[in-house]
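Risk register update: the risk of archive-format incompatibility is retired. Evidence:
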Amino acid sequence: MYQHEISAMRLSLLLLVAAALSAGAAAQIAPFLGGQGPPVVPGGQAQPVVGGPLSPEFYSQSCPRAERIIAEVVQSKQMANPTTAAGVLRVFFHDCFVSGCDASVLIASNQFAKSEHDAEINHSLPGDAFDAVVRAKLALELECPGVVSCADILALASRVLVTMTGGPRYPISLGRRDSLSSSPTAPDVELPHANYTVDRLIQMFGAKGFTVQELVALSGAHTLGFSHCKEFADRLYNFRDKGGKPEDFDPSMNPSYAKGLQAVCRDYLKDPTIAAFNDIMTPGKFDNMYFVNLERGLGLLSTDEELFTDPRTKPLVQRYAANSTAFFDDFGRAMEKLSLFGVKTGADGEVRRRCDAYNNGPMPK
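Archived output:
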């Protein structure tokens, strides 16, 4: 159903885009390639959750090895498939931003009911991410059956992989329940798209209680992973400026970068799986290079470029580009807040036996 997988050979070929950068541009960026070790982010204020409080010690008695088991499984998956971290992080965001962090995105469609999988924006969610959660769930069911929710697995797996790739470790409270419904239409309405303006992004995030700072900090997750060519092709081919004048490509892009992307994406209409790294400089490392790239004309998506040109977000981009510790601190706090968004507890959800299916079918509407 999904065309998520990109071979190691294809990902290696995508690095050729970096070689397309001029020597001058590469030299300009080189001083920014260093990174700092991940600081521990202090706990922030938790949003109220439905049905009762969560706790970092939720499984201390019922499944004391839960976090260790999840970490071992997803770390092994990441080592075998280095795109797993970006995929899990993306699936986590797509889950939380639609009806809350309740594993509704993990429900598979069937002949009787559609799910969030059917939303167009979710068609490209990576299979490695779903597989990592499934493997963790299977291991936990052997250790302590029926105890750890898929929503908690996804939240913990995201943190493990952020930290494993060089990012911050932030607090995660546990006790989420899994959803009893999954909408096939909500994701296309509630999730940001690659061509959204900053106005629309601020409105969308604000409606869910997130600040402009949290919007920019969470956008820093684009330091990992890749995007399919169709998501940014309008910047590369048949581009016209605001006055309608045709351009070879979006002039806000570094010319060598744009030409390299044009070469990589040449056949994207024939092969929709062709993609490019969001961060061409350090694609497998969680760092602040995404923001440095924006300053150098190396942002991939139009939404990325908008963050650097809009006066409400540009100062934050510049701050994070200059100070990786500030980015890590703010990203960690934003992720902690996101992990608590729309959480279900108690009778508002269930602990699924399988992450891709309800225990007794979806809740009637």
